[in-house]
Write a structure and sequence with these properties.
alpha/beta, TIM Barrel, 17% strand
């Protein structure tokens, strides 16, 4: 079967108010300085204006008939034109609009209502720990209580919701069962993520931090019985169903690779397209016509891995999750 791009991951800004070890690396002070982090909670956003994003995506949609646009960052709620962007994407005829967020913004409750009204369909929220102290250690911010409140608010207004938890050895591996039970009680699916080799410091510390899918599942099996479900083609997650009917997921790039049928294209906050999150270079889409974009997409397809992700030089913050 011919490989095609069907989903666009759009990193609307490369700014984030968190400094998570699984995103920018364990040496967060030096890494943050290199990547331009600010000390304040909500630094000025960086990224294209929303008409520029829409101009590029309009042409991409004409070529690819995109089934979904997934908004990422950095932290997308720091992008000041987010409601206008969502409205514009819906007007382009994009059938599904998703977003991944840390849900920490003070005005999140009102923002999420606006986003749903403008056309946002679903949201993935990062929740690496239920322990307030551990959450602050992992993210470098004390927004634990606010995030839990915002998770409940997003569910309350009817957004399709998933929780994401990247598990690190000796840092939050004791949170697997508490997080699972919290999500189960809330009636929301949680996906546990293996660490990805993104960025120099993470690649160096990978052996010390990495926990494989098998160990996460073994921890869950100590309390719950479950069985695997059939994986959806091109999906990053594999899902498992408990005897009670609750379903949780695993995103395990190392243990259960999903590169072979990946259909995701990435557009970063500078207007560059990437065929893979680990690509060494991007292709500028700014000012390109449809013919030029077709040629770029052919080059981007060549960046796809045949089987398994090998790692990337950029940090997750720079290109989105």
């Amino acid at each position: 079967m011919e490989r095609k791009f069907r989903e666009l991951r759009l990193s609307v800004t490369n700014v984030c108010n968190f400094r998570c070890g699984f995103c920018v690396g364990p040496d967060r002070q030096s890494t943050s300085a290199k990547l331009g982090f600010k000390a304040d909670d909500f630094p000025q956003q960086r990224g294209l204006d929303f008409p520029s994003y829409l101009e590029i995506i309009h042409l991409l949609h004409q070529i690819l008939n995109l089934k979904c646009v997934h908004l990422t960052g950095g932290e997308p709620t720091l992008y000041r034109f987010l409601p206008q962007l969502v409205r514009g994407l819906k007007n382009l005829g994009i059938s599904k609009i998703k977003m991944t967020t840390n849900a920490s913004k003070r005005q999140f409750s009102s923002l999420v209502e606006v986003l749903k009204k403008e056309g946002l369909d679903s949201m993935n929220i990062s929740l690496p720990s239920l322990s307030q102290a551990n959450y602050r250690f992992l993210t470098d911010h004390p927004f634990h209580t606010r995030v839990l409140r915002n998770i409940e608010r997003a569910k309350q207004i009817g957004l399709k919701l998933k929780l994401n938890a990247t598990i690190l050895k000796n840092q939050n591996d004791d949170q697997i069962l508490p997080l699972l039970e919290y999500a189960k009680g809330l009636g929301v699916r949680i996906r546990f993520l293996e660490l990805m080799k993104m960025g120099e410091s993470i690649r160096k510390s990978f052996p010390q931090l990495f926990i494989p899918e098998s160990e996460i599942l073994e921890t869950i099996s100590q309390k719950f019985s479950f069985s695997p479900l059939t994986r959806t083609p091109s999906a990053t997650a594999r899902y498992f169903q408990m005897n009670c009917g609750y379903i949780f997921g695993m995103i395990a790039n190392e243990s259960s690779p999903f590169c072979s049928d990946c259909d995701r294209l990435r557009l970063d906050s500078s207007g560059y397209l990437y065929g893979c999150i680990g690509a060494k270079k991007g292709f500028s889409a700014l000012g390109k016509n449809k013919t030029q974009l077709r040629n770029i997409l052919q080059d981007a397809l060549k960046q796809k891995n045949d089987f398994q992700f090998q790692g990337g030089s950029m940090y997750m913050k720079q290109i989105g999750g």
